[in-house]
Design brief:
The structure holds two protein chains of two kinds. Chain A is mainly beta. In chain A, the strands form two sheets. In chain A, strands 2, 4, 5, 6, 9, 10 and 11 form a seven-stranded mixed sheet that branches. Chain A has a four-stranded antiparallel sheet with strand order 1-3-8-7, with no helix packed on it. Chain A starts with a strand and ends with a strand. Helices cover 0% and strands 56% of the residues of chain B. In chain B, the strands form two sheets. In chain B, strands 2, 4, 5, 9, 10 and 11 form a six-stranded mixed sheet that branches. Classes of the chains: A mainly beta, B mainly beta. The interface between A and B is medium-sized, with 22 and 21 residues.
């Protein structure tokens, strides 16, 4: 089974802190994605990457950046956390041919105080 | 208008009944349609995909697609309490890696 592992299940940070959310997948998937999930808004795509060092903005990239230095690892960075970034963050990965079949990590619930 | 719309529910059905979950989408160019299931506190998992008009059956699940009406649905036959979850509809245009998700319908199956 594909495993997508997110390093932190729960984080509490203060406004203005720099936050790193890490995601690692073990099935050699080319595509990796970061979503955030909020009640009533569903899953919204923040960034995705289709290859090492390649990234594209999703629907809500403002306030976020990403890094993909190795194929298996995709990091989401909040340069200066704000309270409106309190959310559940979900990482996912897929093969290009099966781009619709996303395998999700368990999620990282971030609270910004 | 949201790109993918779902009734948030909860949809409550008795055990053994058919649960019908609906989804509409705004982009006529959409080609691929998916249903993900998400248990409370867990991450989404794919349960069905459908690409052409009509019905697609997989066990107790049937996905239905009507591109002319921009409508996709999921039927769950013989609903079980273990089916209680939020069901997310997702839509993709072929030219994009992006899946657009609806906000989900919460299903409750009463024993």
């Amino acid at each position: 089974d594909v495993k997508v592992t997110q390093s932190s299940r729960y984080l509490v940070k203060r406004t203005g802190e720099k936050v790193f959310l890490e995601c690692v997948q073990d099935m050699d998937h080319e595509n990796m994605f970061w979503y955030r999930q909020d009640p009533g808004l569903g899953l919204r795509l923040i960034y995705f990457s289709y290859d090492v060092k390649m990234k594209e903005k999703g629907d809500i990239p403002e306030g976020y950046s990403v890094s993909r230095e190795k194929k298996e690892r995709f990091s989401l960075i909040l340069e200066s956390a704000s309270t409106n970034q309190t959310s559940m963050y979900l990482c996912a990965s897929s093969f290009p041919a099966g781009a619709n079949v996303l395998t999700f990590g368990a999620g990282s619930r971030l609270t910004v105080l | 208008q949201k790109e993918v719309e779902q009734n948030s529910g909860p949809l409550s059905v008795p055990e053994g009944a058919i649960a019908s979950l609906n989804c509409t989408y705004s982009d006529r160019g959409s080609q691929s349609f998916f249903w993900y299931r998400q248990y409370s506190g867990k991450s989404p998992e794919l349960i069905m995909s459908i690409y052409s008009n009509g019905d697609k059956e997989d066990g107790r699940f049937t996905a239905q697609l009507n591109k002319a009406s921009q409508y996709v649905s999921l039927l769950i036959r013989d609903s079980q309490p273990s089916d209680s979850a939020t069901y997310l509809c997702a839509v993709r245009m072929d030219s994009s890696y992006k899946l657009i998700f609806g906000s989900g319908t919460r299903l409750l199956v009463r024993p």
